[in-house]
Design brief:
The structure holds 2 protein chains of 2 kinds. Chain A is mainly β. Helices cover about 5% and strands about 45% of the residues of chain A. Chain A has a single domain, classed as Acetoacetate decarboxylase-like. The termini of chain A are far apart. Chain B has one domain: Acetoacetate decarboxylase-like. The chains are: A mainly beta, B mainly beta.
């Protein structure tokens, strides 16, 4: 029999109570492979995916396309791909995340409902290559994103070339826009807010004791001119660098840095 | 320059919404409703505050498991299955409460959870009217199978149509769901914690003779697994009461908040 919670409700953190799809945070990740390409993008196109009060911190804006293979997490294993824009909100700089795909239902729902990570499901493949695996043969990681299956949204490649000093990377919090519609006509959204997430993590180290943080060359291709998944608006105009890490980390609850409902954005008139 | 709220879409991600605003249209929706009684004390573990099981003197409660094949919808085609329980609120008004539901498509998963609090999870489902040519079951029955995770059968529903039914046999209540959206920050209240009422009606399609496509028949419901993750075993039938198959068009509008736990 399902447990009953102390407050008179069925037990649990998320719907359905008594059989929660996901438990309460933090959510743990182990041996997470993440690669990303940093680049410049077109300011007018990028602005089309930024909510009020969020502006790039540079002109042209700097973006990063991230691809992830999570072989073990408390959500189960899954892939993820997202693009972030380096922005400033009320004088604080963040990596703002306008688009993100996953291929697992639990991070889809938890991401959308808790932090406003605006996830959709997509078909993704992380391919380090090798004839034995049926993959490509070359020096590059190949990550492909299709939505729906057969329609390529993004291809990212990365060739690791040299170890990178972690302290050379400026750490910024991640920012997302949590927007949850109302359940009844005439009501305000359940949430419409910018949420800051500070990720706690640690890099793995090689046998020589140096952190597994690699730099190299990369590419990002966003071929689909889609109104449904307009990742093409974030296409690179100039590639700045590519990186790959292996790390453990955990995701806690966030911090609300801007509440559009409280600021009156949805008031009548 | 950024987009304007209200013009950038209805759902996340704004600028590329996963789902538009309601209503959501469904056409040629096939649905079998399996009517049965279950153990009221077992089912009560999934009922939120403000509702109580409408139990019989023998400790049973009326339930329906519905299995659905949505050939065309504004979300695309998908399968769904859910269970509803007869309950009453503090005013003694009757409703159905929906504690468990599966789908196999992401847009209805997210829209269902975020808009109405339909607590959907993804599952593998198969609607099989049989026939050797299609590699299906050979027999008179529809077989609907549900697996979660894949290769772990959770339950099986079967149905055989036997007589044309009169729509007046199917009296309904509004369906309630518990919409719970967690807080984004420690110490904040949930974004929503409310009972939402959805009272949409379905229009039955008609056959060549003009009869509504509503059939009654016999059914089975077999729950294979006792699972804390997906406790459908709480709805093992103690008495079968019949079943109905229908083909209808309908749409899903926004709901109405019946009880706001945060207010």
């Amino acid at each position: 029999m399902a447990n009953t919670g102390a407050n008179g409700m069925p037990a649990g953190f998320s719907m359905p109570l008594g059989a929660s799809l996901y438990a309460s945070p933090p959510y743990e990740f182990r041996r997470a492979d993440q690669a990303w390409v940093q680049y410049e993008a077109d300011p007018e196109k990028v602005a089309q995916l930024l909510p009020p009060g969020v502006v790039p911190d540079s002109d042209p804006p700097v973006c990063e396309a991230w691809v992830c293979w999570y072989p073990w997490t408390t959500f189960g294993p899954f892939h993820e791909a997202y693009i972030m824009v380096r922005v400033v909100v009320d004088g604080v700089r963040y990596w703002y995340q306008p688009v993100i795909f996953t291929d697992n239902e639990v991070p889809l729902a938890a991401g959308r409902e808790i932090w406003g990570f605006a996830k959709k499901l997509a078909v993704m493949r992380w391919d380090w290559g090798g004839a034995g695996l049926g993959g490509n043969r070359g020096e590059q990681l190949l990550f492909t994103v299709e939505r729906p299956a057969g329609n390529r949204i993004m291809t990212l490649t990365m060739a690791p070339e040299r170890l990178y000093e972690p302290s050379d990377r400026e750490g910024l919090p991640v920012l997302s826009f949590r927007h949850l519609p109302p359940s009844e006509e005439g009501r305000k959204p359940a949430a419409s807010e910018l949420v800051r997430l500070d990720v706690n993590g640690a890099l793995y180290k090689g046998a020589d004791g140096r952190p597994e943080f690699w730099a190299g060359r990369g590419s990002v291709t966003l071929p689909s001119t889609s109104q449904i998944d307009p990742w093409h608006l974030l296409a690179p105009t100039k590639v700045l660098g590519a990186y790959w890490t292996t790390a453990d980390f955990s995701l806690p609850l966030g911090t609300v840095v801007k509440d559009y409902v409280a600021e009156g954005y949805f008031d009548e008139g | 320059m950024a987009y304007e709220l209200g013009a950038a879409g209805f759902s996340m991600p704004l600028g590329a919404s996963l789902y538009p605003p309601p209503p959501y249209e469904f056409r040629d929706a096939e649905q079998v409703s399996i009517c049965f009684e279950a153990d009221a004390s077992a089912v009560s573990a999934l009922i939120p505050k403000g509702l109580r099981i409408d139990a019989t003197a023998e400790g049973a409660v009326y339930c329906e498991v519905r299995v659905c094949n949505y050939h065309w919808s504004a979300f695309g085609p998908f399968h769904e299955t859910y269970v509803i329980v007869r309950v009453r609120d503090d005013n003694d008004d009757p409703y159905y409460f929906l504690p468990l539901i599966f789908t196999d498509s992401e847009a209805p998963l997210a829209a269902g959870r975020e808009l109405w609090g339909y607590p959907k999870k993804l599952a593998l489902m198969r609607w099989d009217w049989g026939g050797a040519g299609s590699g299906g079951a050979l027999g008179e029955q529809l077989a609907f199978t549900v697996s979660r995770p894949a290769s772990t059968p959770l339950f099986t529903a079967t149905f055989t149509p036997e007589r044309q039914a009169d729509p007046s046999e199917r009296s309904g209540h509004g369906v309630l769901s518990h919409r719970l959206l967690p807080p984004s920050q420690v110490g904040r209240p949930p974004a929503a914690d409310e009972l939402v009422l959805l009272a949409s009606s379905k229009t039955l399609q008609r056959d060549a003779a003009g009869n509504p496509k509503l059939w009654a028949g016999r059914a089975s419901l077999t729950v294979h697994v006792d699972s804390d993750a997906d406790p459908w075993h709480l709805f093992r039938p103690t008495r079968m009461l019949g079943a109905y198959w229908q083909i209808s068009d309908f749409n899903l509008p926004m709901g109405r908040v019946l009880l706001d736990y945060l207010a």
